[in-house]
Specification:
The protein is α+β, with helices and mostly antiparallel strands. About 50% of the residues lie in helices and about 10% in strands. It contains 21 helices and eleven strands. The strands form three sheets. The protein has a seven-stranded mixed β-sheet. A two-stranded antiparallel ribbon has the order 6-7. Helix 8 packs antiparallel against helix 11, helix 15 crosses helix 18 and helix 17 packs across helix 20. The longest helix is centred in the last third of the chain and has 15 residues.
């Protein structure tokens, strides 16, 4: 237990959590750390977030703390902003009926034991008593942690019927924790797989993003395949669980790797399914396009390549190819050329103003593009040279 205490207290938000705990305790309320942070501490890992569960109501939380954020007050979920930290503080609750496969139609505030029993997986339903420095385990979560098994709390099918995202979370937690999925849980995931299509694209995007940056991505992908989740969400995807991790990737970069083998139509459908932002969509599409015919991109003149590399997806695609040992010399030379310009390419020496009355229609763009390519290729070193080149160019075309 000393390890758990040490890990939790080493979190940068611990002072804020401790202050919230003491304030609630002074008012006669219980307050425990809950969920993933407790699980991770038992595994010897540092959690991203420290969440608190309490028997204080949302109204009471608003009354006791100067700055709170209502993120789900009707469901008992508030956030307390204190000392630069933003801490989730949720009231122990029982959930009513789930009619939409996402959230209960109402909640009733309850006890720690009842709160634990409405959570998704046993390993996520643990509490840490900050006063007595003890783990509160009402669902045998510690036993499953020791066995490295992912199991739903209570009846598996019911848990998945309540929130259909839990189906994909099952695959994600298997990957994140490197745990086997318990047979009954796996069977329920398989039976319920089609329900995952009712989950909003934004939630699917976030969950897939987490899965693809997990400890054991191939395991998570295998769970998706074995349960039929992949067939429901990405039917074009071949049964391939190979995965090369690139640390520090953004979500769109990992998703681009996952979608790399899709045909164009399937790529567009998957992007729509995941409700990606315009920036993410463009990054993925640009990377996918280059990966289809890298030779065509590398055959372009240098000036065009450098302009294309202003698109994050193009540069990302090249970096991946180089890491895979493909076109290494050509790509390294190209990346070095791009870096020689710093963070941004220079502004063109010539603009449309220089061509007024001299060219018309598409010829204007073609001339400016040629001049800019020569500038990037360092054949034109300043505006004076560019204007001289323009005079020669106009003599040739007129």
């Amino acid at each position: 237990m000393d390890q758990v205490r040490t890990i939790l207290q080493s979190h940068p938000h611990w002072p804020a959590v401790e202050a919230i705990y003491h304030k609630l305790a002074q008012e006669g309320y219980k307050a425990f750390l809950a969920g993933g942070c407790v699980r991770d501490a038992l595994l010897g890992l540092k959690a991203n977030d420290l969440d608190i569960a309490t028997n204080a109501t949302p109204d009471k939380i608003e009354e006791l703390f100067e700055k709170t954020i209502n993120v789900g007050k009707s469901f008992g979920v508030m956030r307390v902003v204190l000392g630069g930290a933003d801490i989730e503080v949720a009231t122990f609750r029982n959930d009513g009926n789930y009619k939409d496969g996402r959230r209960p139609d109402h909640v009733e505030f309850s006890t720690p034991e009842e709160d634990a029993k409405r959570r998704d997986f046993t390993v996520n339903a643990l509490f840490y008593d900050m006063q007595n420095h003890q783990i509160l385990d009402f669902v045998h979560g510690q036993e499953d942690l020791k066995k490295q098994v992912l199991r739903t709390v209570g009846e598996a099918k019911k848990r998945f019927q309540e929130d259909h995202l839990r189906l994909l979370r099952g695959a994600r937690f298997a990957a994140q924790l490197d745990f086997a999925v318990e047979s009954g849980t796996l069977a329920a995931m398989t039976e319920m797989a089609a329900a995952v299509k009712t989950v909003s694209g934004e939630r699917l995007r976030d969950e897939m993003g987490k899965l693809l940056k997990s400890k054991n991505v191939p395991l998570g992908l295998r769970v998706m395949q074995d349960t039929g989740l992949q067939r429901e969400l990405f039917p074009w995807k071949t049964p391939d669980v190979n995965w090369t991790a690139y640390p520090g990737c953004e979500i769109w970069q990992n998703l681009s790797l996952f979608l790399r083998s899709a045909g164009h139509s399937d790529l567009e459908k998957s992007i729509e399914l995941l409700r990606l932002s315009t920036k993410e969509r463009r990054g993925i599409e640009d990377a996918w396009e280059l990966w289809q015919k890298p030779g065509d991109f590398l055959a372009l003149r240098l000036g065009l390549q450098l302009q294309q590399m202003q698109k994050p997806g193009k540069t990302w695609a090249l970096e991946v190819l180089m890491k895979e040992g493909l076109f290494e010399e050509a790509i390294l030379r190209l990346l070095n050329e791009a870096r020689s310009f710093g963070d941004e390419l220079p502004k063109p020496f010539l603009t449309g103003e220089d061509l007024k009355g001299k060219l018309q229609g598409p010829a204007i763009g073609q001339c400016l593009q040629e001049a800019y390519c020569l500038q990037l290729e360092k054949s034109l070193k300043d505006r004076k040279q560019a204007l001289s080149w323009l005079d020669s160019f106009l003599k040739k075309v007129n």
